[in-house]
Amino acid sequence: MKRKLLSKEEKRVFEVKVRLNIKEKRKLDTIVSLTQNNSPEVIRSLLMKAKMPEAIPPILDVQTYQQLRKIGVNFNQYVKAINQSRIAEIDGKTMKELYEILQIIKSKIYSV
What we know:
- By secondary structure, the chain is mostly helical.
- It folds into 2 domains: 15-56, no CATH class; 62-111, no CATH class.
- It has helices spanning 22-35, 39-49, 62-83, 92-111.
- The chain is elongated, with a radius of gyration of 24 Å.
- The two termini are 31 Å apart.
């Protein structure tokens, strides 16, 4: 496929060298990996738009995150109750509910 011909204004003819310290380089690498752009694209975006490039949307949707949160909250409550000797173990019904929620989340992860 043939490259698009650029006008004089669109051609990138100037090269700018920038030195970064370790912390700055790590931050740039993090942004590059989150946005899946290359370093020059990220820097141009910051320079021209004065904002960070948008990150790629997460693999799991909001509903899945809410289900994971429910599991975490339930689990923490039961562990606290066991540690306080209020109950000896998690009952079967609760274990079944947690297992079903985990299966839903597992299926969503594998469908991505």
